[in-house]
What we know:
about 325 residues; alpha/beta; TIM Barrel; 11 helices; 12 strands; binds S-adenosylmethionine
Amino acid sequence: MIDPFGRHISYLRVSVTDRCDFRCVYCMPEHMTFLPKADVLSLEELDRLCGAFIGKGVRKLRLTGGEPLVRREVMKLFRSLGCRVKTGELEELTLTTNGSQLGRFAGELADCGVRRVNVSVDTLDPAKFRDITRWGDLPKVLAGIDAAQEAGLKIKINVVALRGVNDQEIPDLIRWAHARAMDITLIETMPMGDVDADRTEQYLPLSLVKAELAKQFTMDATPERTGGPARYVRVQETKGRLGFITPLSHNFCESCNRVRLTCTGTLYMCLGQEDSADLRAVLRASSDDAVLGAAIDEAISRKPKGHDFIIDRRHNRPAVARQMSLTGG
Length: 329
Ligand code: SAM
Ligand code: SF4
């Protein structure tokens, strides 16, 4: 699949559920309204859709959410997609998780062919963790990370940088992750969906974080790119890899290789734009995968050049109305 700007689309992110067992302050309001079950694709439908994308050239697939591991019987989907890793049709099957259920599922994930997992941990202080996630239990997440490492999964930690909340702790998070041989990536908050908090207060530009980090770490730029928004450095002192995701800057759109599918079968060609394609209607109207393939091609032909995120005091409203938990982070 090649879009109108010559970009090869080889990476699909799939949000398998909009539901979650946490309520992170930057992601959802506490009393979040979730989608009616009838709107959500069955696991079989998700599998068929993913298969259609793989048939079209998708090589990397990430399952996310909401919290992917709270979807009932989600392991069936992992197992089916994992078979495509074993046959070589897929290069990689990964997931992004809050870690709460990793203790239960790490072994099975590894068995299904998953090799790498992204786990979101914004703080190592249990009380602060509870404040940020509202419902989360840090020791359980840390035990999940232990289980995942024991199962042989490679882990990358995702940290959303939050002004006045975890900014002072970022150096410790980096040392902790690198001491455990985990990559770590810092993420700027994105203005997506209504939450109960003031985003301009949460927003902490990573340029400031990086300048602070430079006072205690020597960061060597690396050419490593994943086709995604992260830029990486190697930290000399800890010998680990540190990524920065600055979605509000436009530095990554030109190399964007991904599209995102929601659990209702809506394909978003860009995280920061409203334009989408309703693949559920096509999927449910025809069992012919050629029809589905044509709908995917049409959607890719509409992939925009870049996003329109703005966050400042004059624009204190979400640039994109949908929550990250719907589109998948
Ligand atoms: N529940 C899983 C988790 O938390 O890792 C997967 C879904 S979550 C939406 C994926 C990632 O998006 C997480 O790392 C989360 O911290 C991040 N995220 C959620 N809302 C965000 C926002 N408004 N701005 C930036 N990152 C956000
Ligand atoms: Fe749930 Fe992930 Fe959103 Fe937190 S960031 S509420 S864990 S989906």
